[in-house]
């Protein structure tokens, strides 16, 4: 749909670009060859056709000689606009009636209502951004934390695209030399230096693996970092959740096994959204409902980016860790060890250096725990401007590209033919091109842009 709409119709589209409902102001956007003419027929103050790009103009919006509103019109001329086409943005008062009257006027004058994401699609189709940058626009709109915003901004400004572009250009150079070898196969000559090519492929393998390794953190930042609070009954999991979110959300009781289901809440710590899961205490039980709660706890523990072992300071720590590992019944590496109820211990009795000692009841040590949660993410890469992958589609494409890069390395090491190497490199280039949109299908574009909001 999107490809046909943009290339064949090339018509003028319109949509409300601001949030739905009533507000102080609203923005209605037009994009296309007739955008300026259409708006000009309703705008009374200046002739918009005579105005320069990137200028604002105050006047009245009239429909059938009736004043609809006083508006400010922004003019953006092609190619120096978001979509690469002529764009008009009308700022009006936020009345639903005013918005609909202006939008209806534009449609009557020859524009059509935009589909979801169609403005951004036109920006992509007109070469204003690549596909990964277009996707980051949606991520930017959806970002609800400083870290998620930072990720989206970095990608929208082309950080990820630049990394991939450099890899592809180097790989294309060697691919072209190998194609040349195939043309002269009877002469048995080599145009591509095998040592340099192997070095390049190994470098690309390293970069792709680094990018893929960043996905777990990037995806967690984008969607909220899942933290499962795991512990035996009555160690203070619900009290800790309440302390972290600063709200009495979870029921706290001295009776063991109070929590039967998973309780979730989201808190921002140092600009990062953390999704905390208070789970049922792990123990062997014959209670059917509690058993279901324990199974849910284990399922959330498996999916969590950070697994927090909450222990009781008044009991033997090592024994509790061993029991939790056994009850969870899946391999657990490097859990965050948090020892609660230190208010019941004598002073200076902290013996495990890598553990965090807290009293959730008294809010003691909770701020240190919050800092440790941020440290666990390894945010240095993001803070240093390095690329972090946060899109599942990109991760899959990187995974596929890496598969063919590894095959090409094996081919070189085993002295296999240039033809096989050429095919593997082409496949790697194909999957890298999927990320930035150099290789696309109509289904892929429809899937991506249909998830955008209308007006963007």
Q: What does this molecule look like?
A:
This protein is an alpha/beta fold and 456 residues long. It contains 17 helices and 13 strands. The longest helix has 25 residues.
Summarize the model shown.
This protein is of the alpha/beta class. It contains 17 helices and 13 strands.
Features of the shown structure:
13 strands; 456 residues; 6-stranded mixed beta sheet; 7-stranded mixed beta sheet; 17 helices; alpha/beta
Order of helices and strands: HEEHEEEEHEHHHHHHEHEEHEHEEHHHHH
The first-to-last residue Cα distance is: 17 Å
| Helical coverage, percent range | 40-55%
**Quaternary class:** single chain
Mean pLDDT: 83
Largest sheet data: 7 strands, mixed
The number of E-state strands comes to: 13
Q: Topology, pairings included?
A:
Elements: H1 2-9, E1 13-16, E2 25-31, H2 35-40, E3 43-44, E4 55-63, E5 66-76, E6 87-93, H3 96-108, E7 112-113, H4 118-125, H5 131-142, H6 146-156, H7 159-183, H8 194-213, H9 215-223, E8 225-230, H10 237-245, E9 263-269, E10 272-278, H11 288-303, E11 306-312, H12 317-328, E12 336-340, E13 356-357, H13 366-377, H14 380-383, H15 392-413, H16 418-436, H17 442-449
Parallel strand pairs: 1-7, 8-10, 8-11, 11-12, 12-13
Antiparallel strand pairs: 1-2, 2-6, 3-4, 4-5, 5-6, 9-10
Helix pairs in contact: 1-4, 5-6, 6-9, 7-8, 7-16, 8-15, 15-16
